[in-house]
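cron nightly-structures :: item 1 of 1
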Amino acid sequence: MAHEGKTVAVVGAGTMGSGIATVTARSGHRTLLYDVSEDGLTRGTETVRGFFDKSVSLGKMTSPEAADAKANLTGTTDLKDLASCDIVIEAVFEDAAVKKQLYRELDEIVSDETLFHTNTSTLSVTSIASGSRRPERVVGTHYCNPAPLMKLVEVADGRHTADWAHKATIEFLTSLGKTTVVAKDRPGFIVNRFLIPWENSCIMALEAGLGTKESIDAAITGALGHPMGPFRLLDIVGLDIHQQVATRLYEQLRDPRFFPPPMVERMVAAGDLGRKTGRGFYSYDGSRLFGS
């Protein structure tokens, strides 16, 4: 690898966490995936390794490359194992209190030079950073979903983020092959300020009978040039995640365009969350999170 490999911890082995761990391990960084539960950790590590296996079958990675990437990945349920990490990427539940408590615990474990990256997409980086005694090292890094396939990462500094932390973050993301855009620490940053109202509009169009899910997806990809339609994307993200993000943005912005449509509530109540449950807008054979 052209870059110096880092020791990176990804905290949270859900959809985003496992996706980010896939990216860091594939890029040659020693990657430690952490989750509070053994079951969650097992699902997350299997998802990462499954992605590499699928990449080999599609000709996107060689078998030796996949083996190297897998070797970069380890898992743990013990937060103390993160002591030697250069960077901690936090991808836990979108709750400021949960994130602040995590940073308070990490302060007692990792070095004072360890970078903290929060993958929040709806919460204030400044608020999250206040949980650490060194808020200057906390940077918002919002990976677009699915992280292994999407190039863009939004970088948002908190009020006290230091220049060195910002620069080190950009350098690290560059080593992952990511394209970075700098955003202000505002609800939704750039991407979700546009994406959530648009996805809601597509859902409402489906609910109103404007078209089928297939026809709307085809129209978006065929005419607007998007790599996938809104319903394929929502199934990857998860309808529960969309509901949480949309609701939190609505609570902060009070703009009705952000409020999730009734169809979302019905789908979440039915457990039709997307790929991770095998059924969302579409049905899936298996629960691979990142598509083919």
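cron nightly-structures :: done
The two ends are 26 Å apart (CA to CA).
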